[in-house]
Amino acid sequence: MATDGTGDTPTALPVRTLGRSGVPVTALGFGAAAVAGLYEEVGEEQAAATLEASWDAGIRYFDTAPHYGLGLSERRLGAALRSRPRDAYTLSTKVGRLLEPYDGGGDDLANGFAVPATHRRRWDFSADGVRRSLEASLTRLGLDRVDLVLLHDPDDHERQAFDEAYPALEDLRAQGVVRAIGAGMNQTRMLARFVTDTDVDAVLCAGRYTLLDQGALQELLPGAEAAGKSVIVGGVFNSGLLADPAPGATYDYAAAPGRLLRRALRMRDATEALGVPLRAAALRFPFGHPAVAAVLVGARSAAEARDAVEQYRRSVPGAVWEALRERDLLPPGAPTPGSAG
């Protein structure tokens, strides 16, 4: 049975390794954007309780970024992990946005976070920008190292990301500053290029490998499998629709289109008829592909953190995937847990 790295957690989550890096991740990881006030304010005590609950439930992989709450995510995550044995967990953060002090007041809701606008973000995928970003992240975290560093959303900076930022990450890995490198995006085209054209260890793909969107199956996942690289899947609920399909639910951070809401409701009917909550099926689905190492989930409360682990641990029988296929809600070629090698 997998353990949490300390050997004393009999109910630990399964552990996989990122590519050939040797870096372990629990199958379920914690995405720390929500505890930094994503869309609505989250207090210090609530954030701390959420992170503690995720640890107590067995999660040992935590992902953050400077972008999340203008550094608040890194500060809160660092505070929560500082008393834990450093070799007992894996931590990833991101580079590409530098935070610069700002005294103009206001909030950061235009960028999705209910926090004071104490800083401005500036895109920077230069080699120097990568190093400065990582140094600042370590300061906010209050830790001496992170395990995985990802280029964050380089969509509009493709040339600089490949020509300058990626080589800088390669150097940091060669120097032993970080153990694994990669990129994190909401699209698959550039991520597929990263896994085929560079020596990244892993990529984080958000929202493109879910029960509602299997875009990653076209190039990214086959490319990663062939190259021995790992894919971390984020956004498995497509920002909310698959967690709780109802009028007003969001899909990819906007109001869900009617056709997708109807599709999600049909999915929920199919899974619940077999005694499986839709969010449990959504959490387990990506693991049908052998390139997937982990799924990230966000939580803003201790109850949400515990529920995520509970849903992941639920048994999802093959009949669930068959029912979705019979209703044309899942493509025939989409691999499902139990069907992959």
Model description:
This protein is α/β, with parallel strands linked by helices and 341 residues long. 34% of the residues lie in helices and 20% in strands. The chain contains ten helices and 16 strands. The protein has helices spanning 44-56, 72-81, 127-141, 158-174, 189-197, 220-227, 258-272, 278-284, 302-313, 318-326, and strands at residues 15-17, 24-26, 28-31, 61-63, 90-95, 97-101, 107-108, 113-116, 119-123, 148-152, 180-185, 202-206, 230-234, 250-251, 254-255, 292-298. Strands 3-4-5-10-11-12-13-16 form an eight-stranded parallel barrel, surrounded by five helices. A two-stranded antiparallel sheet has the order 1-2. Strands 6-9 form a two-stranded antiparallel ribbon. It is globular and about 55 Å long. It starts with 14 loop residues before the first strand and ends in a 15-residue tail after the last helix.
Key structural traits:
341 residues; alpha/beta; eight-stranded parallel β-barrel; two-stranded antiparallel ribbon; 10 helices; 16 strands; disordered N terminus
Q: Strand order, biggest sheet?
A: 3-4-5-10-11-12-13-16
Uncertain runs are 1-10
* Quaternary status: single chain
Distance from N terminus to C terminus (CA atoms, Å) equals: 20 Å
**Which class do the helix and strand fractions yield?**
alpha/beta
Report the biggest beta sheet as strand number plus sense, adding barrel if it closes: 8 strands, parallel, barrel
What coarse outline follows from CA principal-axis ratios? Answer: globular
Query: Into which percent range does the helicity of residues fall?
Result: 25-40%
List the secondary-structure elements in sequence, H or E.
EEEHEHEEEEEHEHEHEHEEEHHEHH
Radius of gyration: 19 Å
Number of strands: 16
- How much of the sequence is in beta strands? 15-25%
